[in-house]
Design goal:
alpha+beta; ten-stranded antiparallel sheet; two-stranded antiparallel ribbon
């Protein structure tokens, strides 16, 4: 039998904007019946090993509305237009963030990013984001953080090619940003991406998940 994905609950609690919390839930039936070991959940530096790719795609489809609401909660107007941006990966995938994520780029970034390792440095105004969700060992899925790389003007942060790294919680709360509030909480982002200094600090999508041209 094909693997069934149960959407058990789609519920939003209406709270003031700054306190808004989403409790939308989708659940993978296989894990609901038999939870996975805790270590399979994944953590920073260790991709989750909970789901097959088919289950990832079904879960992502179930989570679509909740993920969209997460972007709507972010105070940055540019990020709220993410649905108009080009996806840079074919689907969500297990990642080193310890979550399942998909990469998108705004129009200023998309053409260069699609050229991958041979592409030029990103222009000012380029934004690359990662939408993500997390799955518990018992199969419950939740929106997770939004990760952002934005190319700022010359001199913004010369040691990292003027990138601004930022992260937001699913309710829109800023976790931290380069050169701004709670900078230390996103310092690890720049440190990790420094391994790709020769590629303008961009760590590209694995070949089997790549979209190699805009509109593909």
């Amino acid at each position: 039998m094909p693997i069934a994905l149960l959407a058990l609950l789609l519920l939003t609690i209406a709270l003031p904007a700054r306190a808004q919390t989403f409790v939308d839930e989708c659940r993978v039936a296989r894990l609901a019946a038999k939870p996975a070991p805790r270590e399979a959940q994944g953590r920073l530096g260790a991709p989750p090993a909970l789901l097959t790719q088919a289950e990832i795609e079904l879960t992502a489809a179930c989570m679509a509305a909740a993920l969209d609401r997460s972007f709507a909660a972010v105070g940055d107007a540019a990020l709220r237009r993410v649905r108009e941006w080009a996806p840079m990966s074919r689907s969500f995938k297990a990642s080193e963030h310890g979550t399942f994520l998909r990469v998108y780029a705004n129009p200023q970034a998309a053409e260069s990013y699609a050229r991958y390792e041979e592409g030029p440095r990103m222009p000012q105004g380029a934004i690359v984001i990662k939408r993500s969700f997390r799955v518990e060992p018992d199969g419950r899925a939740r929106p997770h953080r939004i990760y952002v790389m934005e190319k700022m003007g010359a001199g913004y942060e010369t040691g990292i090619n003027d990138w601004r790294f930022a992260a937001y919680e699913p309710n829109g709360t800023l976790v931290g940003e380069t050169g701004g509030r709670d900078n230390a909480r996103v310092r690890f982002c720049a440190e990790c991406h420094a391994a790709a200094r020769e590629q303008d600090f961009l760590i590209f999508v694995l070949p089997k998940f790549r979209i190699n041209s805009i509109g593909e």
